[in-house]
Amino acid sequence: MNYSKFIKILFVSFLIFSFHRCGSGIELTELPIGGNIDAIDKFGKRVNLQEFREPVLLVFFGYTYCPDFCPNTLAKIKAATEGFSEADKNKFRVVFVSIDPERDSTETVTKYVQFYIPNAVGYSFDANTTSQILKQYAAYVEKSKDGLSFDHSTYLYVLDSQRKTRKLIKSTDGKDVITKTILSLGGDSVQTK
Fold first, then answer.
1. Which residues are recorded as binding Cu cation (predicted)?
2. What is the reported pTM?
3. Distance (Å, rounded) from C-alpha 183 to C-alpha 92?
4. Is 20 annotated as contributing to ligand binding?
Protein backbone atom coordinates (compact mmCIF):
# COMPACT_ATOMS: atom_id res chain seq x y z
CA MET A 1 0.00 0.00 0.00
CA ASN A 2 1.44 3.37 -0.92
CA TYR A 3 1.76 6.19 1.58
CA SER A 4 -0.93 8.52 0.10
CA LYS A 5 -3.52 5.72 0.02
CA PHE A 6 -2.71 4.91 3.66
CA ILE A 7 -3.17 8.58 4.65
CA LYS A 8 -6.54 8.72 2.84
CA ILE A 9 -7.78 5.57 4.60
CA LEU A 10 -6.57 6.94 7.94
CA PHE A 11 -8.34 10.28 7.29
CA VAL A 12 -11.64 8.61 6.27
CA SER A 13 -11.45 6.34 9.34
CA PHE A 14 -10.95 9.40 11.55
CA LEU A 15 -13.99 11.13 10.01
CA ILE A 16 -16.19 8.06 10.50
CA PHE A 17 -15.01 7.67 14.09
CA SER A 18 -15.63 11.36 14.80
CA PHE A 19 -19.10 11.23 13.27
CA HIS A 20 -20.17 8.23 15.34
CA ARG A 21 -18.64 9.66 18.47
CA CYS A 22 -20.39 13.00 18.13
CA GLY A 23 -23.80 11.60 17.29
CA SER A 24 -26.06 14.54 16.57
CA GLY A 25 -23.28 16.99 17.42
CA ILE A 26 -25.49 18.57 20.09
CA GLU A 27 -23.96 18.78 23.53
CA LEU A 28 -26.47 18.90 26.36
CA THR A 29 -25.01 19.75 29.75
CA GLU A 30 -26.75 20.95 32.90
CA LEU A 31 -26.14 24.69 33.24
CA PRO A 32 -26.28 26.58 36.55
CA ILE A 33 -28.63 29.30 35.27
CA GLY A 34 -32.27 29.47 34.27
CA GLY A 35 -34.54 26.61 35.26
CA ASN A 36 -38.12 26.59 36.43
CA ILE A 37 -40.12 29.80 36.63
CA ASP A 38 -42.71 29.85 39.40
CA ALA A 39 -44.29 33.30 39.60
CA ILE A 40 -47.52 35.28 39.34
CA ASP A 41 -48.09 37.05 36.02
CA LYS A 42 -49.73 40.47 35.63
CA PHE A 43 -53.20 38.85 35.42
CA GLY A 44 -52.66 37.30 38.85
CA LYS A 45 -52.29 33.82 37.35
CA ARG A 46 -49.63 31.46 38.69
CA VAL A 47 -47.05 30.42 36.10
CA ASN A 48 -45.05 27.27 36.78
CA LEU A 49 -43.01 25.75 33.96
CA GLN A 50 -43.12 22.36 35.71
CA GLU A 51 -46.79 22.14 34.74
CA PHE A 52 -46.12 22.02 30.99
CA ARG A 53 -46.33 18.49 29.59
CA GLU A 54 -43.76 19.04 26.82
CA PRO A 55 -40.32 17.57 27.62
CA VAL A 56 -38.48 20.53 26.03
CA LEU A 57 -39.08 24.22 26.65
CA LEU A 58 -37.39 26.98 24.67
CA VAL A 59 -37.41 30.03 26.95
CA PHE A 60 -36.78 33.34 25.22
CA PHE A 61 -36.69 36.92 26.56
CA GLY A 62 -37.87 39.78 24.39
CA TYR A 63 -40.63 42.31 23.80
CA THR A 64 -43.38 42.86 21.25
CA TYR A 65 -41.94 46.16 20.01
CA CYS A 66 -38.58 44.52 19.23
CA PRO A 67 -37.60 45.49 15.67
CA ASP A 68 -35.22 42.65 14.83
CA PHE A 69 -33.92 39.91 17.14
CA CYS A 70 -37.27 38.79 18.56
CA PRO A 71 -39.13 38.36 15.26
CA ASN A 72 -36.03 36.87 13.61
CA THR A 73 -35.56 34.31 16.40
CA LEU A 74 -39.23 33.33 16.40
CA ALA A 75 -39.16 32.98 12.62
CA LYS A 76 -36.06 30.78 12.92
CA ILE A 77 -37.78 28.51 15.48
CA LYS A 78 -40.78 28.28 13.15
CA ALA A 79 -38.55 27.34 10.21
CA ALA A 80 -36.62 24.82 12.35
CA THR A 81 -39.80 23.00 13.39
CA GLU A 82 -42.03 23.28 10.28
CA GLY A 83 -41.16 19.79 9.10
CA PHE A 84 -41.88 18.17 12.47
CA SER A 85 -44.40 15.34 12.70
CA GLU A 86 -47.31 15.81 15.12
CA ALA A 87 -45.43 13.67 17.65
CA ASP A 88 -42.34 15.86 17.37
CA LYS A 89 -44.43 19.05 17.65
CA ASN A 90 -45.60 17.75 21.04
CA LYS A 91 -42.01 17.51 22.28
CA PHE A 92 -41.46 21.24 22.73
CA ARG A 93 -43.05 24.56 23.59
CA VAL A 94 -41.74 28.11 23.25
CA VAL A 95 -42.09 30.26 26.37
CA PHE A 96 -41.62 33.96 25.62
CA VAL A 97 -41.08 36.23 28.65
CA SER A 98 -41.48 39.96 28.11
CA ILE A 99 -38.70 42.27 29.24
CA ASP A 100 -41.06 45.24 28.74
CA PRO A 101 -43.73 44.83 31.45
CA GLU A 102 -44.84 48.46 31.12
CA ARG A 103 -46.14 47.98 27.54
CA ASP A 104 -46.61 44.21 27.18
CA SER A 105 -49.48 42.27 28.69
CA THR A 106 -49.53 38.47 28.88
CA GLU A 107 -52.34 38.47 26.30
CA THR A 108 -50.39 40.68 23.88
CA VAL A 109 -47.21 38.64 24.26
CA THR A 110 -49.06 35.35 23.72
CA LYS A 111 -50.72 36.68 20.53
CA TYR A 112 -47.32 37.92 19.36
CA VAL A 113 -45.54 34.57 19.74
CA GLN A 114 -48.48 32.53 18.49
CA PHE A 115 -48.31 34.45 15.21
CA TYR A 116 -45.08 32.49 14.63
CA ILE A 117 -45.59 29.31 16.65
CA PRO A 118 -49.20 28.32 17.42
CA ASN A 119 -48.50 26.38 20.64
CA ALA A 120 -46.17 29.04 22.07
CA VAL A 121 -47.07 30.96 25.20
CA GLY A 122 -46.10 34.44 26.32
CA TYR A 123 -45.89 35.97 29.76
CA SER A 124 -45.59 39.43 31.22
CA PHE A 125 -44.78 39.88 34.89
CA ASP A 126 -44.50 42.99 37.05
CA ALA A 127 -41.16 44.82 36.97
CA ASN A 128 -39.78 43.23 40.18
CA THR A 129 -40.67 39.67 39.12
CA THR A 130 -39.25 40.30 35.64
CA SER A 131 -36.01 41.52 37.21
CA GLN A 132 -35.79 38.41 39.42
CA ILE A 133 -36.37 36.07 36.46
CA LEU A 134 -33.75 37.89 34.37
CA LYS A 135 -31.23 37.46 37.20
CA GLN A 136 -32.13 33.77 37.52
CA TYR A 137 -31.38 33.33 33.81
CA ALA A 138 -28.38 35.71 33.81
CA ALA A 139 -30.06 37.51 30.89
CA TYR A 140 -28.74 40.90 29.86
CA VAL A 141 -31.30 43.70 29.41
CA GLU A 142 -30.68 47.43 29.17
CA LYS A 143 -33.31 50.02 28.34
CA SER A 144 -32.39 52.64 25.76
CA LYS A 145 -32.11 56.31 26.73
CA ASP A 146 -35.37 57.10 24.95
CA GLY A 147 -37.09 54.33 26.96
CA LEU A 148 -38.67 52.80 23.85
CA SER A 149 -36.29 49.99 23.03
CA PHE A 150 -34.02 47.50 24.78
CA ASP A 151 -30.62 46.05 24.18
CA HIS A 152 -31.00 42.45 25.32
CA SER A 153 -29.44 39.02 25.16
CA THR A 154 -30.95 36.79 22.50
CA TYR A 155 -30.27 33.27 23.75
CA LEU A 156 -32.80 30.50 23.60
CA TYR A 157 -32.61 28.72 26.95
CA VAL A 158 -33.35 25.03 26.41
CA LEU A 159 -34.99 23.38 29.43
CA ASP A 160 -35.45 19.63 29.85
CA SER A 161 -38.42 17.82 31.42
CA GLN A 162 -37.02 18.51 34.91
CA ARG A 163 -36.77 22.18 33.91
CA LYS A 164 -33.00 22.21 34.14
CA THR A 165 -31.27 24.40 31.57
CA ARG A 166 -29.40 22.06 29.23
CA LYS A 167 -28.27 24.34 26.40
CA LEU A 168 -28.05 27.94 25.29
CA ILE A 169 -28.75 28.44 21.60
CA LYS A 170 -27.21 31.63 20.22
CA SER A 171 -29.00 33.87 17.74
CA THR A 172 -26.18 33.16 15.27
CA ASP A 173 -26.74 29.38 15.41
CA GLY A 174 -28.49 27.86 12.41
CA LYS A 175 -32.02 26.50 12.52
CA ASP A 176 -30.57 22.96 12.39
CA VAL A 177 -29.20 23.47 15.93
CA ILE A 178 -32.74 24.16 17.15
CA THR A 179 -34.13 21.15 15.29
CA LYS A 180 -31.44 18.75 16.54
CA THR A 181 -31.62 20.04 20.12
CA ILE A 182 -35.39 19.56 20.38
CA LEU A 183 -35.27 16.09 18.83
CA SER A 184 -32.26 15.02 20.93
CA LEU A 185 -33.60 16.31 24.23
CA GLY A 186 -37.18 15.26 23.45
CA GLY A 187 -36.09 11.64 23.02
CA ASP A 188 -35.68 9.03 25.73
CA SER A 189 -31.99 8.28 25.29
CA VAL A 190 -30.36 11.60 26.16
CA GLN A 191 -27.53 11.36 28.66
CA THR A 192 -26.37 14.26 30.81
CA LYS A 193 -22.68 15.07 30.44
1. 66, 70, 152
2. 0.82
3. 9
4. no
